[in-house]
Specification:
The complex is a heterodimer. By secondary structure, chain A is mainly β. Chain A is about 10% helix and about 45% strand. Chain A has a 22-stranded antiparallel β-barrel. In chain A, a hairpin with a 6-residue loop joins β5 (about 70-75) and β6 (about 80-85). Chain A is globular and about 125 Å long. In chain A, about 45% of the residues are buried. Chain B is globular. The chains are: A mainly beta, B mainly alpha. Chains A and B meet through β25, β26, β30, β31 and β39 of A and α1, β1, α2, α3 and α6 of B. β30 (about 660-665) of chain A pairs antiparallel with β1 (about 35) of chain B, so a sheet runs across the interface.
Chain lengths: ~1100, ~625
């Protein structure tokens, strides 16, 4: 922003008269009055002439003045202008004083233009490059976490390149995408924060209220993130170099049973109510009970440590060059990141190059070009997948036998994979390899022409291209290979996406006199996206083939392969928009927006969406009666209100019509004995989805009331917002009964509401020459509620899908999205819950559940409960004591009561320290890992979490099964948990945990070398070294890896599940910033 | 001047916007070039054929007749059961009649059948509405009509499969996009049956006989197969099934109406012997399913689900999952073992004359040395599917051997005819007797004159049919549904248990069955099934004699032989009382004749009601 003003400053001196005959040179240094730091880029001009220059990086300047003397004017954004009369001196050193009033001459990007911050009528949160620079993280998104009120940034897992979910005000849409719209230098870019280098960001403005976003019409409903990249500044080239390197390490592991505990548990599985054959299998595999003591001394293997325990090194280097002349400015940067993941064979590599050029042909005509190329490679399959538990990889590291079973081959331990469902995690990690190569070209250019001083037309063209290749290798022990004769298979995916955007705007600011100001904007935009994706699978490769050989191998002879698949799709959008902003005496402000979009994603007649909005603001501090009160502590007080509509059309293509697509597998049939005829499958373009001709725009209508206050010479600023967003015609990829032949259909159903408060505080507590302390704090309260569901349905059950056939979420009117739904755990059955009889010959007791006790056989693999089995509460009023689906209830939601961030920046002399904390309170986490890892399911030879050592014991110290009620009770006096359940998993309150946390997410300590020392080098103008710890410590009661995990994202109705998430790591690094 | 300029600028925008809006409609109509719209598909016979092919696709693959429906759903009856130990959530839960509603082997086939119904519904809607159908050339019209008939038939096949397994399933006869509600409730199965029986009547007039369209072979429905399917469905409509309202096995009082339909259809097929007839060699019917070489000139195989492609969607796992067991180290590679014969089934066949026993039951297995050795009486497999009959061997890694599944055979037509005739007339006519005996004579190859005496009274003849169908269709997924429509499932399970107890005790019919058999590995000759069993190297000589003589009755084998538990392999525990292997252990009459609806389905469709008993 300061850059813009600087630019303007240069303008005013453009085309000036050149040096006259009788002149002499004056030089000097300009410094900050408070801290004595040199100021670069200060404009130095001679009053009433057109001669001007600016200070260099060391604050030094030289200017030619008339011999007879002159008045030098020093102007610098954020500082008070100073005039110095030069008579005979040749050296004029100046100290500039910061000007609290001009500091807020900050502009905020509001879409297709910007306004001064005080004229802002909407709810916008901003962050500048300076805030981001402090955080050495690989993506800008990570640096944003917790910084902005109402903007939640969560990294879903700990894997390199993991998806970062950004939601503005809770997200309005029930399904599909809740991510905001990203505009980079005027061009829409998908997922921009993951693609941009943090170092090239000048500023980020997040438009939060719908009235502000509605200028973007469709897609604006979830907020708009406007990113401005750095451009060059006039002056000599400035080269800067940043580098940092460090290591990541797993923060915590899940405690599992040790070898002896594991064996005792297996002994129980093999001997409890089994036949002799099964008992013999145990002896064959593990030995007799008397021999089991040897497992006490056997070397324990911590598989989590083996797979996730490594020190994962990473390093990043950024080189930046910027500069320019009065006509042309440039900024170029190169960024290289190499990062290992903590999991074996995972990592991340990225190289960015970007260049930005701005050129001015004349006062009226200017152009700009911006190109960015990013090349990245993400390695590793990760741990989670969208499939059910069979495809989960984390389980192997948790459940595999905790000692060496003969090398690292999964098959040696478990020749029959089917009985354990496990593979040696190391073998697996070395046999499931994935390389995701991605090349992004993001380019844009603009031409701007001012027909009149106050009438400007601008045309922006953007062209983005993404090429992505994903190569996946599945070695012999992988799940994929197991389904294909145990032979390696590869999958090669390619996606090529092109998008083209053209925006044309006319901006007119009529001169209406001193009291009135009016800013008019009309524009039109087209947006075209084309995607071509292809997939090839090659199966039955030679068993010993390496991944690299496999990726280039040809079809193995005498095999029948699936045909390659391809999907070509595209979307088109056409928009017209306009905006009028009016202000009266800078006191009363009003903005009216209108936008209409037409989208190819809907059927004719349903294509157009209309999104109007209005905003008003009142600056009380501009009122005479306030001014008259002379409140010196009150600098600014503004009240804002807005109301408006925005839309959402983020759905797949052609979902409104039934189409046919070719498939040789899901549509093919062998009409003869030796070939396949390809079939034409009905559905929609994106797969087996039922078409819906009526789908149309989802609309978000929102109210926002905000207050901005600045106090104590702008040392304290406070922004408070209250909002009420209501979304109707929700676009929901709804599950439909499978009896329709499909599993989903895109529908417009129901309404949701998000209401909330946001508070943002910035306080410059101390600012002296040697010490400064800035702090900022934000907190958001959001309440999400479903107001209406389809066709008057009041609630329904939906499935997260981590395990098949488990309806574990309840979607209910009047309640928030994401209610966990299951049984309330009631501990376990004790002997007292049974009647028992003793067999007179064998002496064995048999237990029959008392008819008055709830019978949870449905959770036990359909067998009758025995002492020690898991018990749940009977909640329904039905007379039967048999536990059934009616006995489930809502167990909590993933929605936090509030969340926020707390940032502290200290500077003492040359040291700087940043401590950033973020927190979330009141959410619940559905710990599906815990459910799985404390259940037997129907597999043997699987390890359990160590908490299960506290389970009900059926066998005595001699390995003899006890049935005597008295002995049994005594044996279990000190245990609290139940026998691990067989049968399918069911959700009980045991797995629902408190997800509140306070995270020290970043601590950075830096030291800038003193200028005196640096000057000696002759070429370095700034040098700072620092050390950082990311994710230092999390205070939480949560027992899993991380309370923020969210791994079932494809269905937004099922948030807050921690299932097979890649464990999060702590990152310790050191770095250096250098400016030449 | 300013104003003038603004005005002209606005004009330019207005004109621009106007011209854009006119071309806007076109600009906004983007259809993925990977797809086609219905008016493209159904105005071309080639594309219509592709759409019909996609309906056939729902028959094959792991979730169709390629594996789950064919080898899991039809078990257990008095022929075969699933191997392994009970778990409510997988294949063995189905076989032991203790499947839970979250059984993973039920969900996907259920979905696939319904997606077949939907694909058929779309063709049934669009084909008759296409211009080709009404205004095309005569040749085009004929072809389009045939496709229409096939679509109707396939829909009937899917719905029949759904009804016989789940009962009053929701049924829609229009594409889901046109349906009044997506949340269709359960529909009375009689109503659905009546509709599909009528549809099949329409279809059989639209699709020519096999000889009229030779390229279809037995891989697509032709007139004979449609008629046979109609007869089969009519018998199911006229038979017993578990009723949701009364919670009992019932049949409607007008059941004879449906026996008459079956009778007429079978008779018509039998009158076209040049189209379909009995294959003189029983074994060759099944060998024909295995390779591109056909041994079925008589076209006894009237409709089979074709398998090819080496994937889980269009191929089958027949011979890999089920069929004779091949050790993975043998030259044949891994195969078979997923199904086990009920121990007494072996002794239901005439020991020396009925060639079907050695085709139907996998009496031996192939060991690592690629030799054959007799199984125990407890782990004999099904035998109509054999990896050795395919071209795949140990050097091939595939799990899919392209083995087809037989849906309908001509012998079924003969026996349905005989059964219907007996029921309608109160006693078998000469034609009925001859139909039964025709099947028996083929089975008693070489002993045609020694077939069992045919009872001439209604009950006796019916019982003979019951027995004959057991022997003829073992392992073909037919028996369980026969027993259900006759309401004999419960009593047959009782009967099996009684027989097994007699077998264990070595009493009655099993008095001479040996406790142990002593065997040596022998060369696998790859000859006929009967000869393969006859050449098993057993202590005591000719195998058929060994099977019926008490022998040494010692667990110690004579030198050079290995002891194979025969009668001894069967115990009260492993066959009857064990909760993990007891035959049909969780079966309850008037309760478990139907599967539970998949839980997922009930979660998604609140209008559906779970079957009684789950």
């Amino acid at each position: 922003m300061s850059r813009v003003l600087l630019f303007l400053a240069f303008f005013s001196f453009f085309g000036l008269s050149v040096t006259k005959a009788q002149t002499r040179q004056v030089s000097g240094t300009v410094k900050d009055k408070t801290d004595g730091q040199p100021l670069a880029g200060v404009s130095v001009s001679i009053k009433e002439s057109k001669i001007a220059t600016s200070t260099d990086a060391n604050g030094a300047y030289k200017i030619t003045v008339p011999v007879n003397g002159a008045t030098l004017t020093f102007t610098y954004v954020g500082y008070k202008t100073k005039n110095v009369t030069v008579t005979g001196q040749t050296k004029v050193d100046v100290n500039l004083e910061e000007d609290a009033n001009t500091l807020q001459e900050v502009t905020v990007n509001i879409g297709y233009g910007s306004v001064r911050k005080e004229a802002l009528t909407g709810s916008v949160s901003s962050i500048t490059g300076k805030d981001i620079d402090q955080f050495p993280v690989s993506t800008a998104a990570q640096a944003l976490a917790g910084k902005l009120a109402g903007v939640s940034v969560t990294t879903t897992e700990g894997s390199p390149g993991a998806e970062i979910v950004i939601k503005v005000r809770g997200g309005s849409s029930l399904t599909g995408d809740n991510s905001p719209l990203y505009i980079v230098d005027g061009i829409q870019v998908e997922n921009a924060l993951s693609i941009l280098s943090p170092n090239e960001i000048q500023s980020i403005d997040v438009l939060k209220d719908v009235a502000s976003t509605s200028i973007y019409g469709s897609r604006g409903a979830n907020g708009v993130v406007i990113i401005t990249t750095k451009s060059g500044k006039k002056g000599r080239p400035i080269v800067s170099f940043d580098a940092y390197a460090g290591a990541r390490q797993i923060v915590n592991e899940l405690d599992v049973m040790n070898p002896y505990e594991f064996i005792k548990y297996q002994y129980e599985l093999y001997n409890n109510n089994t036949n002799q054959e099964v008992k013999d299998t145990f002896t064959k595999k593990y030995g007799t009970f008397e021999d089991l003591d040897i497992y006490k001394n056997i070397q324990n293997i911590d598989w989590q440590d083996k797979v996730f325990g490594r020190q994962a090194w990473s390093n990043t280097e950024v080189l930046n060059l910027s500069g320019g002349t009065s006509k042309t400015t440039y900024n170029a940067s190169v960024n290289n990141t190499k990062e290992d993941g903590i999991m074996l064979n995972s990592g991340y590599r990225r190289t960015f190059a970007s260049i930005r050029l701005d050129h001015k042909f004349s006062d009226k005509f200017r152009i700009g070009l911006n190109a960015r190329y990013s090349r990245q490679r993400v390695d590793g399959v990760g741990t989670s997948s969208t499939g059910s538990q069979g495809t989960n990889r984390l389980r192997n590291s948790v459940r595999y036998q905790p000692y060496s079973g003969g090398g690292d081959s999964g098959d040696l331990f478990d020749a029959d994979y089917l009985t354990t469902g496990l593979t040696n995690p190391i073998t697996l990690a070395n046999q499931e390899l994935k390389y995701d190569y991605r090349n992004d070209l993001i380019s844009s250019g603009y031409i701007q022409y001012s027909i009149l001083k106050n009438l400007t037309i601008k045309s922006t063209v953007g062209y983005n291209r993404v090429n992505r290749h994903t190569n996946t290798f599945n070695g012999p022990v992988s799940n994929v290979a197991r389904n294909n004769a145990g032979l390696p298979a590869i999958q090669l995916d390619t996606v090529a996406q092109k998008s083209f955007i053209n925006t044309n705007t006319i901006n007119y600011r009529p001169n209406l006199g001193k009291n009135h100001s009016l800013d008019l904007l009309v524009g039109q935009e087209i947006n075209m996206v084309d995607i071509d994706s292809r997939t090839t699978v090659l199966k039955f490769l030679p068993i010993n083939i390496s991944a690299q050989d496999a990726f280039v191998s040809s079809t193995p002879p005498n095999t029948i392969q699936d045909r390659p698949t391809s999907l070509i799709s595209g979307t088109r959008q056409f928009s017209i928009f306009g905006r009028a902003s009016y202000s009266f005496q800078n006191k009363y402000l009003a903005t009216v927006n209108f936008r209409t979009d037409a989208s190819s994603l809907f059927a004719a007649g349903k294509q157009w969406g209309y999104f109007p909005s209005a905003q008003v603001a009142w600056r009380l501090t501009e009122e005479k009666f306030i001014k008259d009160m002379q409140l010196s502590w009150l600098d600014n007080f503004k009240v804002r209100f807005s109301y408006g509509a925005a839309g959402n059309n983020r759905i797949g293509q052609d979902l409104f019509r039934t189409l046919f697509y070719l498939s040789s597998t899901t549509g093919g049939y062998a009409e003869t004995d030796g070939s396949i005829s390809t079939g034409l499958i009905s559905g929609t373009a994106t797969g087996n989805i039922l078409s819906n001709p009526n789908i149309t725009w989802e609309t978000n209508i929102s109210k926002n009331l905000g207050i901005d206050i600045e106090l104590f010479k702008n040392k304290l600023s406070l922004n408070l917002d209250y909002y009420d967003n209501r979304t109707k015609n929700l676009l929901l990829n709804a599950n439909v009964p499978q009896t329709t032949g499909y599993s989903t259909q895109q529908q417009n159903v129901g309404k949701t509401q998000n209401r909330g408060f946001e508070l943002q505080l910035n306080y410059q507590a101390v600012k002296t020459r040697n010490f400064s302390y800035n702090t900022s704090f934000n907190i958001s309260f959001n309440k999400n509620k479903i107001v209406e569901l389809q066709n008057g349905v009041s609630s329904y059950i939906t499935q997260s899908g981590w395990v098949n056939s488990l309806g574990d979420f309840k979607v209910e009117v009047g309640k928030p999205v994401g209610q966990f739904y299951g049984f309330v755990s009631d501990g376990r059955y004790t002997v007292d819950d049974f009647t028992y009889v003793q067999n007179t010959t064998t002496g064995v007791y048999t237990y029959t559940l008392k008819p008055t006790v709830a019978n949870s056989r449905v959770l036990l693999g359909n067998r009758d409960p025995q002492p020690g089995d898991m018990k749940v509460q009977k909640l329904s009023s039905s007379s039967s004591m048999m536990i059934g689906d009616d006995d489930r209830t809502v167990l909590g939601t993933a929605q936090p009561k509030f969340m926020g961030g707390f940032n502290n920046q200290f500077a003492y002399k040359n040291f700087d320290l940043t401590v950033f904390l973020n927190f979330s309170y009141g959410s619940k986490v559905y710990n599906a890992n815990k459910l799985e890892f404390t259940s037997q399911y129907n597999v043997k030879d699987n390890n359990l979490l160590a908490v299960m050592n506290d389970r009900w014991q059926n066998f005595d110290a001699n390995g003899v099964k006890v049935t005597d009620p008295v002995v049994l009770t005594a044996m279990n006096a000190n245990t609290t948990l139940w026998t691990p359940t067989t049968g399918n998993y069911a959700l009980t309150s045991y797995a629902i945990e408190n997800g509140s946390f306070l995270r020290i997410s970043n601590v950075t300590l830096g030291y800038s070398l003193p200028q005196s020392l640096i000057k000696k080098t002759g070429f370095i103008s700034k040098l700072r070294v620092y050390g950082t710890v990311n994710n230092l410590y999390t205070i939480t009661g949560y027992t899993g890896y991380d309370p923020e995990a969210n791994t079932r994202r494809s269905n937004p109705l099922t948030p807050g599940i921690d299932y097979a998430a890649y464990p999060r790591s702590r990152y310790i690094l050191a770095g250096i910033n250098m400016v030449f | 001047m300013n104003n003038k300029f603004i005005k002209s600028a606005l004009m330019v925008i207005a004109v621009g916007a106007l011209s854009i809006t006119t071309s806007c409609k076109k600009y906004l109509d983007v259809q993925s070039s990977s797809t086609s719209s219905p008016d493209v598909v159904f105005e071309s016979t080639a594309n219509t054929n592709a759409a019909v092919i996609a309906i056939y696709n729902r028959l094959c693959g792991d979730n169709g007749y390629g594996s789950r429906i064919s080898t899991l759903f039809g078990l257990t009856a008095d022929d075969f059961k699933t191997s392994g130990s009970y778990s409510s959530s997988d294949r063995r839960g189905i076989s032991m009649y203790g499947a839970s509603s979250d059984n993973t082997d039920l969900i996907n086939p259920f979905l696939q059948l319904y997606s077949g119904v939907e694909r058929a519904n779309i063709c049934i809607k669009y084909i008759p509405a296409s211009k080709l159908y009404t205004n095309g050339s005569d040749a085009e019209k004929t072809i389009m009509k045939r496709y229409y008939g096939e679509a109707l038939t396939l829909r009937a096949q899917f719905l029949y499969e759904l009804i016989r397994n789940w009962g009053d399933v929701p049924a829609s006869f229009v594409p889901s996009a046109d349906a009044e509600t997506l949340y269709g409730p359960n529909v009375d199965r009689n109503k659905t049956y009546d509709q599909i029986i009528a549809d099949l009547k329409t279809a059989e007039d639209l699709v020519p006989w096999r000889s009229g369209i030779t390229e279809y072979g037995s891989f697509r429905y032709t007139k004979g197969a449609i008629k046979g399917l109609r007869a089969r469905i009519a018998l199911a409509r006229g038979g017993y099934s578990l009723r949701s309202a009364s919670h009992t096995m019932e049949r409607s009082s007008d059941y004879l109406t449906y026996y008459k339909i079956a009778f007429e259809e079978c008779l018509d097929i039998m009158n076209h012997r040049s189209e379909h007839n009995l294959n003189p060699v029983y074994e060759n019917v099944f060998k024909s399913l295995h390779t591109t070489t056909r041994y079925d000139d008589a076209h006894e195989l009237m409709f089979e689900v074709a398998a090819f492609g080496g994937n889980a969607s269009t191929d089958s796992k027949l011979g890999y999952y089920n069929g004779i067991r091949f050790n993975s180290a043998s030259t044949f590679g891994s195969g078979g073992g997923g199904m086990n014969a009920i121990p007494t089934y072996f002794y239901e066949f005439d020991l020396t004359k009925d060639c079907r026993r050695d085709v139907t039951i996998g009496v031996f297995e192939i060991v690592a040395s690629s030799k054959k050795i007799i199984n125990t009486l407890f782990n004999m497999t099904d035998g109509k599917f054999r990896k050795s009959w395919t071209t795949f061997n140990g050097s091939s890694a595939a799990q899919n051997f392209s083995i087809n599944w037989p849906i309908l055979r001509f012998s079924d037509v003969l026996l349905m005819y005989a059964e219907a005739d007996n029921e309608i007339n109160g006693a078998p006519s000469a034609a009925a007797v001859s139909a039964l005996q025709e099947v028996q004579k083929r089975a008693y190859a070489g002993f045609e004159t020694q077939i069992p005496v045919t009872p001439m009274d209604k009950t006796g003849f019916f019982n003979a049919i019951v027995k004959e169908r057991l022997l003829e269709f073992g392992g073909e997924g037919i028996r369980k549904y026969d027993l259900i429509r006759w309401n004999l499932l419960a009593s047959k399970f009782d009967e099996i248990r009684t027989k097994i107890r007699a077998l264990i005790a070595g009493t009655g019919d099993y008095a001479n069955v040996p406790n142990y058999i002593y065997a040596k590995e022998g060369n696998y000759l790859m000859g006929t099934s009967v000869n393969e069993v006859a050449t098993l190297d057993l202590y005591g000589g000719i195998p058929n004699n060994v099977f019926a003589s008490p022998g040494l009755n010692s667990s110690t084998a004579p030198t050079g032989y290995t002891t194979k538990n025969w009668r001894k392999a069967v115990s009260e525990d492993n066959s009857i009382t064990s909760t993990s292997t007891g035959i049909a252990y969780y079966f309850e009459a008037n309760k478990k004749e139907l599967f539970p609806y998949p839980k997922t389905t009930l979660i998604e469709n609140p209008n559906m009601v779970q079957n009684f008993g789950y």
